[in-house]
Design brief:
Strand order of the largest sheet: 7-6-8-9
Radius of gyration: 22 Å
Structural class: alpha/beta
Number of helices: 12
Shape: globular
Strand content: 5-15%
Helix content: 40-55%
Mean pLDDT: 88
Length: 344
C-alpha cells in the first residue's frame, strides 16, 4: 500500500500482525491521531479490526511469523527485522517504509524532506523537532537542526520549528538508562560496566568550545562547567554516564567510558575495541557493555560491539560479556519523548 491507511484493505484480511498493547504501536497510533485527527484514525482501527489480524505481545514474534509465512505484514520497529537478517541474510523478510509517518532519518529514509512534505500536504506547519541523540555533536544534533532548517525553508516558508535541546542530563532520560541496566546488575555481578559511545574526531569536539581554549586543555576539562564544556560531546557523555552510575549506586571502579567506531587517528579515547582486548589482562573477564549514543539499537553497533567486540573480548581471555540493549521502544522511551515535547 502507498501509506499505512492502505492496510485497511480486503486483500490483507487475516494477513496482518499487530501488537496492540505494545508501547511502540500505541505511540504510532497517538502520532497518527496528532497528525490526521481522531476520527480518521478510529475509522482505520475499526477497519483493521474488522479484517482480522494476528495479535502478538511484541515485535519479535511478528518477525518470526512473517519469516514462517504466517502473515504478510507486521507493524514493527525496523530494527527487529535487521537483527534477524544480521543472523540470516536469506530470511524471507524485509522492511517496507510507508508514507505518512511523523518521523525522519538524518542520513537515511524516510528523509527529512519527505516528512516535511507530508506535513505540508496536511497543512501542519508548527512542528516540534526532537533530535533523538542524547548528546550534542556536529554530526548529529547540530547538523540535524541545520539540515532541517534548510530543507524546511525549501519546502515551505510557513514552517515554524521548535528544536528540543540535547537531553543527556534530563532526569527522565537518566532514569530510563538506569532502568535499562538495572535488571542485568540485579541478576548478575560484573567486573566492569562499559559505557561505549560513538566516537568523534577531537577536532569536532573542539569546535563546540566557545572559548577556543578550554577543550582538552587539561585532563579533567569535561568536569569543569563553563562555556568551554557546556556543548561538548565528550563532556555530555561523561556527565550522562556519571549520573547513571550514581543513580545505580555504582562505585567509580565498577564502570568506565570508552568510544567506538573510530575511523582514523585523532578520535576520542579510550577506544572501545582496545579496552575490550585489555580488560581480561586486568582481571576483568566478566563485563557488561551498553551503547547509549543512540536511544535505539542499530545494525552497525550490534555488529561492531555485540559480534566483533565480543570476539575481541573472548579472544583476549574474557569469559562473559553481556550486551545491554538501548532504550528502544520501552515505556521509558515514550515517557521521555512526552517530556521532551511538553518541555519544548
Amino acid at each position: 500500500p502507498g501509506d499505512i491507511y492502505g492496510l485497511a484493505n480486503e486483500k490483507f484480511r487475516n494477513r496482518l500482525g499487530l501488537a496492540p498493547t505494545n508501547s511502540s504501536f500505541i505511540a504510532m497510533v497517538a502520532c497518527m491521531i496528532e497528525s490526521d485527527g481522531e476520527e480518521k484514525v478510529l475509522e482505520w482501527l475499526t477497519a483493521i479490526n474488522g479484517l482480522g489480524y494476528g495479535e502478538y505481545p511484541k515485535n519479535s514474534p511478528q518477525v518470526a511469523a512473517a519469516a514462517a509465512g504466517e502473515l504478510d505484514i507486521g507493524m514493527i520497529n525496523h530494527y527487529y527485522t535487521l537483527r534477524v537478517l544480521a543472523e540470516d541474510a536469506g530470511a524471507p523478510i524485509k522492511n517496507v517504509y510507508l508514507d505518512g509517518g511523523c518521523g525522519a532519518m538524518r542520513y537515511e529514509d524516510p528523509s527529512i524532506e519527505s516528512a516535511l512534505l507530508n506535513f505540508k500536504n496536511k497543512g501542519i506547519f508548527e512542528l516540534i523537532v526532537i533530535s533523538l541523540y542524547p548528546h550534542n555533536a556536529m554530526a548529529t544534533t547540530i547538523t540535524t537542526e541545520m539540515e532541517t532548517r534548510i530543507v524546511a525553508h525549501k519546502v515551505s516558508e510557513d514552517f515554524k520549528l521548535t528544536f528540543t535541546k540535547p537531553f543527556f542530563d534530563n532526569e527522565i532520560y537518566i532514569d530510563a538508562v538506569s532502568n535499562s541496566i538495572k535488571p542485568f546488575i540485579e541478576k548478575a555481578s560484573f567486573d566492569k560496566i562499559i559505557f561505549s559511545y560513538h566516537g568523534i574526531p577531537k577536532r569536532q569536539a573542539k569546535k563546540t568550545d566557545e572559548t577556543g581554549e578550554h577543550c582538552f586543555s587539561t585532563g579533567n576539562c569535561c568536569e569543569v562547567e563553563g562555556a568551554g564544556s557546556k556543548d561538548c560531546y565528550r563532556s555530555h557523555t561523561r556527565i550522562a554516564s556519571d549520573l547513571t552510575a550514581k543513580k545505580l549506586g555504582l562505585n567509580d571502579d565498577q564502570w568506565e567510558v570508552a568510544y567506538q567506531s573510530r575511523i582514523g587517528p585523532g578520535w576520542l579515547t579510550p577506544f572501545t575495541d582496545r579496552r575490550l582486548a585489555e580488560l581480561p589482562e586486568e582481571g576483568k573477564d566478566n563485563i557488561a557493555v551498553l551503547c547509549p549514543s543512540f536511544i535505539s539499537d542499530c545494525l552497525e553497533t550490534l555488529e561492531e560491539i555485540d559480534i566483533r567486540g565480543r570476539k575481541t573480548f573472548f579472544d583476549a581471555g574474557g569469559k562473559n560479556m553481556t550486551y545491554i540493549p538501548c532504550l528502544n521502544d520501552s515505556e521509558d522511551t515514550i515517557n521521555l519523548l512526552e517530556n521532551l515535547v511538553k518541555s519544548a
